[in-house]
Amino acid sequence: MIGGQMTPQEQKQAANEFVKRWQAAEGNEERESRSFWIEFLEDVIGTTNATRRLEFERKVNGRKIDVFYEDKEILIEQKSRGVDLDKKEFRSKRAKEGETPYEQARWYYDQLPRQMKPRWIIVCNFDEFRIHDMDKENPGSAYESVRLEELPKYLYLFEMFRSAESPRVKKEQELSVEAGRRVARLYNMIAAQYDDIEHNRQEQESLNILIVRLVFLLYAEDAGLLQSHGALSDYLRPIPVGQLRQAMRELFDVLATPEDERRYIEPELDAFPYINGGLFDHRQIIIPPFSEEIKLELVLSISADFDWSEVSPTIFGAVFESTLNPETRRSGGMHYTSVENIHKVIDPLFLDDLKRELSKIEGERSERTRAFKLREFQEKLGKITILDPACGSGNFLTESYLQLRNLENRVLADLRGADDTPSLGEDFVPIKVKLDQFFGIEINDFAVSVAKTALWIAEAQMNDETQTIMRREVRTLPLTSNTNIVEANALRIDWNDVVPAEECDYIIGNPPFVGHQWRNKSQQDDMKTAFMGYQKYGKLDYVAAWYAKAVSFIGNLPICAAFVSTNSICQGESVRILWKQLFERGIAINFAWPSFIWNNEASETAHVSVVIIGFSLMSHQASLKQIFFENETKIVNHINGYLIDAPDVFIEARGHSVNIGAPEMTKGSQPTDWGHLLLSPDEANALLKKYPELEENVRQFMSGRDFLNRDLRYCLWFADKMIDFHSYPEISERLTFVKECRLKSQTRSVREAASTPFLFTQIRQPDCDYVAMSRVSGERREYIPIGFVNKNVVASDALIIIPSEDLYILGLLMSKFHMAWMRIVAGRLESRYRYSPAVYNSFV
Question: Which of 5, 251, 300, 607 has a CA-to-CA distance to 285 between 20 and 30 Å?
C-alpha cells in the first residue's frame, strides 16, 4: 500500500480474490449482504472500519434500506442471487403495485431529506451491479452494468467509494464560496460609498449590519420564507436609485414590526413577513447613497441570478466572515473550515454515539417499544447543550445543530411510518432541537452577527426538511431571538455567565493559534487570567489557555470537550508544562487526532499542523479511547500527553545531560544583526581581495539550512581578533546598521548589545571541531542529518552543536533508538522536527 491506500495492482488482485469467493457463495440476501459489502469495502476498496461506515437496514418511513453509505452518498438495494433486476415484485400483500429493485431504491431516495439524498444508487444481486447516477437526466435507465466476473476490469466505475469528498458537500462548498464572492463584491461597492469606512467605527458597524440583513433576505426569498420567490428584487427593482436608502429603511422597519402592530403601510411593504429575532431591530444605521451599479448588482447578479437556498450555512458563514470582516479582509484570503474537519471534532465527541444509539433503537422489533424509545431519544436530542468558547462565524455550532436536526428528522420519519396517514397526533410538537441549545463566545462583533445569521439559515433549511417529513407546515418566521452568541473575550469572561456549567454537555471549538513568542500584551494578560493557580504556562501557545478555562468550567461535572489546537501543546516541554498540570486536576484524554495538516480552505493561507484532543474528567472518561489517523483508528487503553498509547511520562527540563560525563549540547551563536554581519561568497571574496589582512575575521558561517543544503555563507567575526573599524568603511557602515536596528528592539538585552555591534549577541563558538545538526529538519527523514564541522566554521543559533570529536557521540545520536526518542519528545515546527538540547539532555 502507498500512503495508506491500495495500489491499482493490489486492488485488482484483491478484486480477483473477491470474485472467486463470491462466485462460490450461496448469494442469499438476508444472510450474506453484510459480509458481501463489508468485504467489498475493506478488501477491494481498501476502506478501514467498514462496519462503522456502512449502515444496514436503515429505516425510512417504515421500510428499510439494505445498505446506506451516507458519507459517500451511496444507497444500495441488495437482492439474492438469481433475482431478475428488471422484474417488478410486490413488497407486501397490501401493495397495489409491484416495484423493480431500482424503483424500490428510488422510493427510499424520494423519502430521504434533501441533505441525505444519495448521489448514487447501486442495485445488486451478487452477480450484477447496476450503478445509477442520480445527477443524470434519466437515472433509472441510464445506468452502468458490471458483472461480478468483470469487477477487476471495471473497478474505476466504483471510484465513488474512494472519493475523498462527497459530490453534495463539494457542490455546497462551491455554491457557498461563490456566494461569498458575490457578497464581497457588493460589500466593497457599498463600502466605497461611505465617507470614511476605514476609520469610522459607526460606518463600519452600519455596513456590517446592512450586509448581514441583506444576506438573510437573499436566502429568505429563495427559500420561500418571504411572500414570493424574488420578493426582495421585485420590491427594489422599480425604486429609483435616489430613493433606495429610504426604501431600505422602510423595509427594515416593517420586517421588525409584527403584522398586528403595523399602521398605514404600503401594500408592497405590508406583504413582507415579520422576521424579528433581533436581526431587524429598530436600530438606526447609516445607509450610504446607492449607485446604479450597486442596484444592478443587488437586484440581478446577487438576487435574481443566484440560488441562495442551496448554500451551506456552515461554510458560507465562515467565508462571509473572513471575506468581509474589517480585521481580516485586507489579507484577501477567503477561508473556511471544511465540514470534514469539523466532523473530526464532533463525531467522536458525541455524534457517533448518538448515531449508534438511534440505529439500535430502530432495530427494536416491538413497534410500541421502538416508538417509545424514539420519543425518548428525541427528547434527549432536545436537551443536549453545546458551547463553543471561540466560535468565530459559528461553523462548529452550525454543523452541530444541523447534525442534531438530521437525527431528529430521522426520528420523525421513523415515528410517522410508511403510510400517508400520520401516526402522530396533530397536536404533536415535531421539533425539540432548538437554537437555544447552542452557545458561543466570540470577541469580534461582526463574527457574532454572522454566527447568528448562519444559525438562522440552518434552522430555516432544517425546518424545510422537517416540513417535508411531517407533511405539515413548520414555521420559521418570526425568527427566535438568538442571544446565546455572546460578544466577549472568552479568556476574561466567566463561561457560566453564558451557560451554567450544570446545563452544559459539550465544549467544542477551534481557538486561535498564536505561538507563545508572538503573543501581544493583551494576550499575555489573557493567559495570566486563564492560568490562575497554575505553576507555569509562559512557554505555552495561546490556545492552551482555552484548556485551562475549560477545565475550570468543567469542575466536577460530566462535561466532555474537544478542541482543535496547534500541535505544539503535545510536543517538547509543553507536554510537561500543560498536561502534567491538567492530569493532576483529574483530566483524561478520551480521543485524539495526532498532528495532521489542518486545511482551512484558505485561498492564500499557509496550512497549519494541528491536533484534535477530546478530554473530560477521568471519572467521566470514555470507556473506549481512540486515536485517529487518516486511514486507521486505534482503540487504546490510555492516551498520554504526547497523544500516544503509553503511560504518562513527563520529560523534565534539564540544563545538563542525565548521563554523567557526557559532552554538553548547546545552540550555536546568535548574530541578531538583520543580515548586516553576514556575507555572500561574492561579498566575502571582494572584501578579502581588498583587505587580505581580514582573513581571520571573515569566517564561514553555517545555519541549519546551510548545513542541510550545503550552502556557503560567511560572516564578520571579531570575537577572537579585533580591528580598527574606522580603517574599513565597508565594515563600519554595516556596524552602524546593526547598532541602529538593535537600539529599536523591544528586547532589553538586544538594546544593550547595541554598544558592541561588531559582536554576535550570543557567542557559543567551540574551540574544537564539533558535532552539528540543524534545529529544524523534515519529518519524512528517517534520520536527522548529523555531522562533524571544523572549529573555524561559525555555527549559528539555528544549529545544535556538541563540542566533541568523539565518533561514539555521533553514532549514538544517529542510532534508531535516539531517533525514535526524538520523534516522540522533540518539538515541531509545523510538522517538521524541531530539536533542542532538552531532547539530548533527557536521553539515557
Answer: 300
